[in-house]
Amino acid sequence: MAVIISGKEVSAKVRADVKAECELLKEKGIDPGLAVIIVGNDPASRVYVNNKKKACAEVGFLSEEYALPEDTTQEELLAIIEKLNNNPQINGILCQLPLPKHIDEKAIINSISPLKDVDAFHPSNVGKIMIGDYHFLPCTPAGVMELIHSAGIDVCGKKCVVIGRSNIVGKPMSMLLLHENGTVTICHSKTENLKEICSNADILVAAVGKPKFVKADMVKAGAVVLDVGVNRDENGKLCGDVDFAEVEPKASYITPVPGGVGPMTIAMLMKNTLMAAKIQNNL
Ligand code: NAP
User: Fold this and answer.
1) How many A from CA of 240 to the centre of ligand 1?
2) Furthest-apart CA pair in the chain: how many Å?
3) Residue 190 near ligand 1, beta carbon < 6 Å
4) Chain-wide mean pLDDT for the chain?
5) Residue-wise over 56-87: b if at least 16 C-beta within 10 A, else e?
6) How far from 51 is each of 190, 260, 264, 280, CA to CA, in Å?
7) 4: buried, middle or exposed (CB in 10 Å: 19+, 13-18, 0-12)?
8) For 104-120, what is the mean pLDDT?
9) Side by side, which strands form the sheet with 33-39?
10) Which whole number is the average pLDDT over 178-190?
């Protein structure tokens, strides 16, 4: 039986710490603010944006929402971002992805001031993560690391396998494990012998986007298994990339879906926004 690492509990602690620090900043006259931009009517994006606004209210941040219609042009979006870049009341800017097809995501990411880029997607912040000299960490991988730390797991010297190499999750996840001296292997859709590689991992992170993809025969007995996936199973029920029922008895630690990595992402966004407010006020 594995220990279940609860993202619900750990994220509540992170948000409580952010709230306490936010109160101290307010005493100094600093009121942290996050702008969230959503373009179009994607229902999943709507849910994420609502949750982000709720988290802002909970920790005491000002939050501004820009809900833009699907046919917003790239120029219109860039103009809004430029205004927000220059607005001292806004410390963090988040543009919910995916954007409609007619908008170039790269151009939008590049237009957000790196100092306000609380998603840590700007190439300058990505580069900083690569060299280990950063202010902001991408929220989901940072959330996974927080879960690992909360369970008292030492990454140093461990065989770590990350399934997935996206810019948002897989690649930065691998880098954070490497920074903590893990021996990291990154797997993707062209990886040969995936099962063999995964079943050697002491720490296995699944960021594939395929429901219940990781089965018990891909997991070493006693491994730590972190499930980033957010999928629907054949019955429409929320599930991760790991087949929890099969893998849990074999793992030493495991994160559930829901209630694992998911809540951490928003908590880490709050942490990044607080950091942005501090940096912009020379603290
Ligand atoms: P993504 O951009 O689609 O990347 C998926 C990765 O999985 C790719 O690198 C892909 O390889 C790899 N892959 C696909 N099929 C594979 C296979 N059969 N064997 C090995 N590797 C395979 O997805 P993402 O944005 O990283 O997200 C991954 C999952 O995490 C999704 O379920 C997403 O919803 C979830 N997510 C959750 C949070 C959260 O807050 N909890 C945040 C972000 C994402 P190639 O590169 O070769 O195509």
Assistant:
1) 11
2) 56
3) yes
4) 97
5) beebbbebbbbebeeebebeebbebbeebbee
6) 35, 15, 12, 25
7) middle
8) 98
9) 62-68, 33-39, 92-95
10) 98
Under 8 Å between Cβ of 16 and 269: no
- In this structure, what are the phi and psi dihedrals at residue 36, rounded to the nearest 5 degrees? -115, 125
* pLDDT recorded at residue 21: 98
The reported pTM is 0.97
Q: What are the φ/ψ torsions at residue 154 (nearest 5 degrees)?
A: -95, 125
Ligand 1: centre distance to CA 248 (Å):
21
Strand, helix or coil at 23?
Answer: helix
Structure tokens at 136: 């902001």
58 vs 11: CA distance, rounded Å: 12
Structure tokens, 66: 């820009």
Sheet with 203-206, edge to edge strand ranges: 3-4, 253-254, 224-227, 203-206, 159-163, 183-187
| d(C-alpha 259, C-alpha 283), whole Å | 33
* Active-site position among 117, 119, 227, 241: 119
All structural domains of the chain, each given as residue ranges with its CATH number in brackets, are 29-114 (3.40.50.10860), 139-260 (3.40.50.720)
As a whole number of angstroms, the distance between CA 270 and CA 184 comes to: 28
How many whole angstroms from 188 Cα to the centroid of ligand 1?
Answer: 9
Which atom of ligand 1 is nearest the CA belonging to 190?
A: 47
Quick count: other Cβ atoms within 10 Å of Cβ 181? 13
